[in-house]
Structure formats: C-alpha cells, structure tokens
Specification:
Length: about 230
C-alpha cells in the first residue's frame, strides 16, 4: 500500500530537508510513501499573499485565516479521499507509539501546520478530523511537529526499515522502554558487555531483555506501568 501525505504550510522550505535524507528519503524513493508540500500562500486572494489577520475582539498575535486553508483542503479532497485531516497543535492529542502505529495503516493524510497564534477556530470545528501534539510546549509553527509525526509514522510502513521486526522491539511498543543494547568491542576501557549475551541461549537472552526492559521502565518511566 502506498501512503500519501499532503502537508499544508506557510514555510515549505523549513519542512523539506528531513525528507531528503536517511530513512524518509529511502521510503519515498522506494515508493512506500509520497510526501507533497503545499504553500498556503498560493491559495490567498490578496495582493500580499498574507494568510493571517488580527483577532476579532482584540488580543496579541495574528491568526491564520480560514479561506486559504479551506481552498487548499477542498482542492485536495476533490482529487482523492482522505483518512485523516490532522492539525498540529500543542493542545491536541499527545502523539505516542499507539497513535503512530494506527496512523501507519492509513492511506491518505493531510497535515495542517499551524503558525502565528494558531488557526481560525472554524478550521478546527469544520475541516479537521484529528488534532495532534508532540508535547506540552509551544513551537513557532507546526512544521517541526509535522516532521516528527511523519518520521514516527513512515518508519512503521512495511518495507521501510531494513529489518521489519526492528520497529516491533522499539520502546513503547509494549508499554515498556527498550532494554540495553551492545555491539563490538566486547570490552572497552574495562567496561564489559554482559556475559549472558554471548552464551547462545536465546530464550535466556530474551528473558534477560524482558527483565532489563521492565527495570528500565521502573527506573525511568514508572508512569507507563500504571
């Protein structure tokens, strides 16, 4: 299945570089995903191509207008159906591994990147199907959040990672943090790799990893165990 992601932004140049390297680039080149960037200024009707205006009722900060957003979304929806129209916002549902897993099964997604003070509430009331946050903090815009969201989702598409089981053993997949991992050399500056990893007893190794994952979670993120 080919996934298509359409990203609506006022700063497409800020977003493009993460998709031009590493796993995201390979996923696009291999045909697992298409990512398209849409500059909302192209959908304005004013001479200055401005996408924001002052708040009704007064207050600090500019607000993204509904018209260019609606025009862009309407054009895209006239060409295909979309599973989700997502708005990146600090007060949205927190992105976690479960959400990433679910989103990786979608076929067509629109992502709207907020900017300035945010978007006209009517966008959220009538055009958006899902609001997503990457954390309890505010960024200058939704572009970096959209890049994080896409990375978390695209890497889960079958065929994107070299070893498809790799994603299944990541932290949070089973509500636990990942166990410690090691590679060569076996000893460095007197720091040794645990002997159990060299015995070839894979059931015992898996048991050890499960124990370490639980210990890691208890020490670092006990809230996950609740």
């Amino acid at each position: 299945m080919l996934m298509r992601i359409d990203i609506l932004t006022v700063l497409p140049e800020l977003l493009k570089s993460p998709f031009e390297a590493s796993i995201l680039k390979r996923a696009i080149e291999a045909g697992h995903v298409e990512v398209h960037f849409h500059n909302l200024r192209d959908y304005t009707t004013n001479a200055y191509k401005s996408v924001d205006d002052y708040q009704f009722g007064g207050g600090a900060g500019m607000v993204m207008m509904i018209e260019p957003i609606d025009k862009c979304i309407s054009k895209l929806k006239s060409e295909r159906s979309y599973d989700e129209i997502i708005y990146m916002t600090p007060d949205g549902e927190r992105l976690d591994q479960g959400m990433a897993n679910a989103m990786s099964l979608k076929e067509n997604i629109i992502i709207l990147c907020g900017h300035y003070k945010g978007v006209d509430q009517r966008v959220r009331d009538h055009l958006i199907t899902k609001e997503v946050s990457i954390g309890d903090y505010v960024l200058s815009g939704g572009e970096l959040g959209a890049a994080v969201f896409c990375d978390a989702v695209i890497r889960l598409i079958p065929g994107v990672l070299g070893n498809e089981t790799s994603a299944l053993t990541d932290s949070f997949q089973d509500d636990l943090l990942a166990p410690p991992i090691y590679t060569r050399p076996r000893e460095y500056k007197g720091w040794k790799v645990p002997d159990i990893l060299f015995g070839g007893n894979f059931p015992e190794i898996e048991k050890w990893r499960e124990e370490q994952a639980l210990k890691n979670t208890e020490n670092k993120r006990p809230d996950l165990l609740k």
